[in-house]
TrEMBL record:
<feature type="transmembrane region" description="Helical">
    <location>
        <begin position="20"/>
        <end position="45"/>
    </location>
</feature>
<dbReference type="InterPro" id="IPR005467">
    <property type="entry name" value="His_kinase_dom"/>
</dbReference>
<feature type="transmembrane region" description="Helical">
    <location>
        <begin position="185"/>
        <end position="203"/>
    </location>
</feature>
<keyword id="KW-0067">ATP-binding</keyword>
<keyword id="KW-1133">Transmembrane helix</keyword>
<dbReference type="InterPro" id="IPR036890">
    <property type="entry name" value="HATPase_C_sf"/>
</dbReference>
<dbReference type="InterPro" id="IPR039506">
    <property type="entry name" value="SPOB_a"/>
</dbReference>
<keyword id="KW-0418">Kinase</keyword>
<dbReference type="InterPro" id="IPR003594">
    <property type="entry name" value="HATPase_dom"/>
</dbReference>
<dbReference type="GO" id="GO:0005886">
    <property type="term" value="C:plasma membrane"/>
</dbReference>
<protein>
    <recommendedName>
        <fullName>histidine kinase</fullName>
        <ecNumber>2.7.13.3</ecNumber>
    </recommendedName>
</protein>
<dbReference type="Pfam" id="PF17203">
    <property type="entry name" value="sCache_3_2"/>
</dbReference>
<dbReference type="InterPro" id="IPR004358">
    <property type="entry name" value="Sig_transdc_His_kin-like_C"/>
</dbReference>
<keyword id="KW-0808">Transferase</keyword>
<keyword id="KW-0902">Two-component regulatory system</keyword>
<keyword id="KW-1003">Cell membrane</keyword>
<keyword id="KW-0547">Nucleotide-binding</keyword>
Length: 556
């Protein structure tokens, strides 16, 4: 009596089910191959039978056209059901076993046809080749169905073409000959199938050993767990084969790279386009924690080669961290500026106290008005020219930071920007990065350090210019400054530099615009960003400079 437990019997029976399934699939493949081989054998046989039928039709047509009486009757008689041409054509059709014998004139009008009601009408297929003097063999559909056809020109005694002869062989007769040959072919296919079944049995046994008796459900579960793990993690995963094509792209990678599942199977450059991201993922740029920008996102990439010549790359989103770092830098700058203003405010209070103690009340009132008015004028000068509150607030804050760093931040009198921006936050990012870059390049470089900002609206296009009196950008580095990771400054405590100008260009290009750098007239750098379609409607608002020969700059 057997004492095997149900679980033991299940493990014993499971390989049999897998074996049976694999065997069934292999037999199905062998059957498919046998059917395919039979079809490959039948295809040329069918073509051969078709060719024989067409040649027979052509021979009947040539024999008919060789009778000079038919050409003469075609010229002297009318296309009628009891005419001499119809009578001769029917005699030839019955004698040859053809489906039809049609004789036509140069206009394609029938003088004969199996269906007498069609005599006198134009043929249904194009007779131009035969009327041009060429013999035609074809398989085609006509008024009598599908048939093998032969068409030849009809010539008179002088050799001139007066019409054409078209003969059709019924296609069913060709098909019947083909069907008659099939049973013998199936006998050979059955023998091949038996050999294939034996080979399938041997292969299935080998598969059974290599899969270690795992059921298909177990294998499917492992794959499902792998897919769930890849698509559930919060890091982007990109797998490449040895030729650089994408073979795996999880959900997070699709989000970070702004692509969809259709990118799988494509080369990297075709899926992502040329750029640093493509170079990093392809391994053209080596290193760890490589910085790259994809659209509005700052990414950290790492790449690991695989044994098959491919690679697996991981991506981490650093956009929010980078934004927080920049906000931290800005906050530190504001704190320093506020600390300086606190000292300045204390000095003002001491001065005011002294004036009051000296009973110089008028001078004290005038002093308070000057101090309060200076800050109010700064804000008013900016808000009069820049109507967007985000941009205005940004420049007011930057003016305070610039003053603390010993740099005069100026807004050109040519500046005029209405409050109808499509993407004000994007423009704030662009202006903030350019002004920060200019302040870094200018602070401490000259005794009269100055940064000038120009914002203009030209129709629906926004044009931003930031000039400084710093050392400028050499001509051979004017494209490099817009690359991710390129910087001449020491990295801050929160991470790497080389992101600001890269984001400026990416944001500009995302809106169909441009970002360039040239030499400023003052000797420093001049950054120009052009943003088409930056406003919600067409605008012509623009403040002209007071002097046609020069632009005035108001220091704030």
């Amino acid at each position: 009596m057997s004492t095997a437990s149900p679980a033991r019997r299940l493990r014993f029976g499971l390989p049999r089910r897998v074996f049976a399934q694999v065997l069934l699939m292999q037999v199905a493949i062998a059957a498919g191959v046998a059917v395919l081989a039979t079809g490959l054998f039948l295809a040329p046989l069918s073509d051969q039978l078709d060719d024989q039928a067409m040649r027979r039709a052509l021979a009947i047509a040539q024999t008919t056209a060789a009778q000079p009486r038919i050409a003469e009757d075609l010229r002297t008689s009318l296309p009628t059901a009891d005419g001499p041409v119809q009578a001769e054509a029917e005699r030839i059709r019955r004698a040859s076993g053809a489906e039809y014998v049609v004789i036509m004139n140069m206009h394609g009008v029938r003088w004969s046809h199996t269906d007498r009601s069609r005599i006198g009408k134009v043929v249904s297929t194009d007779p131009s080749d035969a009327l041009a003097g060429r013999d035609v063999m074809e398989i085609d559909d006509g008024t009598l169905g599908r048939s093998a056809r032969g068409k030849v020109p009809l010539r008179n005694a002088d050799g001139a073409i007066v019409g054409a002869v078209s003969v059709g062989i019924e296609y069913d007769s060709v098909r019947a000959r083909l069907i008659h040959a099939i049973p013998g072919l199936f006998a050979y296919a059955g023998g091949a199938l038996a050999v294939g079944a034996l080979a399938a049995y041997l292969i299935s046994r080998r598969v059974q050993r290599q899969t270690r008796d795992l059921a298909f459900s177990d294998i499917a579960a492992l794959l499902a767990e792998r897919e769930a793990m890849l698509h559930g993690i919060r890091e982007g995963v990109v797998a490449l084969d040895r030729s650089g094509r994408i073979r795996l792209l999880n959900d997070e990678a699709q989000r970070l790279l702004a692509v969809d599942g259709a990118a799988i199977g494509l080369p990297l450059e075709a899926a992502l386009g040329p750029g640093r991201t493509t170079d990093v993922l392809a391994g053209h740029v080596t290193g760890t924690d490589l910085l790259t920008v994809r659209g509005p996102r700052v990414l950290i990439a790492n790449r690991m080669p695989t044994d098959d010549g491919g690679a697996v790359a991981t991506l981490r989103d650093r956009t929010e961290l980078e934004q927080l770092g920049r906000e931290l830098d800005s906050t530190r700058g504001l704190i320093d500026a506020l600390r300086a203003q606190d000292h300045e405010h204390a000095n003002h209070m001491h001065t005011l106290l002294g004036l009051l103690e000296l009973e110089m009340y008028e001078e004290a009132a005038e002093f308070v008005g000057e101090v309060a008015g200076a800050h109010r004028v700064t804000a008013e000068q900016i808000t009069e020219k820049i109507k967007d509150p985000l941009l205005a607030a940004l420049l007011v804050g930057k003016a305070t930071v610039a003053a603390e760093r010993g740099v005069a931040l100026g807004v050109s009198s040519d500046t005029a920007l209405p409050d109808r921006l499509v993407d004000p936050r994007g423009l704030v990012t662009i202006v903030g990065n350019l002004v920060d870059n200019a302040l870094d390049a200018t602070a401490g470089s000259t005794r009269h350090a100055r940064v000038e900002v120009v914002l203009r609206a030209e129709g629906r296009t926004a044009v931003l210019t930031v000039r400084d009196t710093g050392p400028g950008v050499p001509a051979d580095r004017r494209e490099s400054v817009f690359m991710e990771g390129w910087s001449t400054k020491e990295p801050p405590s929160h991470g790497k530099r080389g992101i600001g100008l890269a984001l400026v260009r990416r944001l500009a290009e995302r809106q169909g615009g441009t970002a360039t750098v040239t030499d400023a007239a003052s000797g420093g750098a001049e950054f120009v960003v052009v943003l088409p379609e930056a406003f919600t409607d067409s605008l012509t608002l623009r403040t002209e400079p007071q002097d046609a020969g020069a632009h005035e700059t108001e220091e704030v």
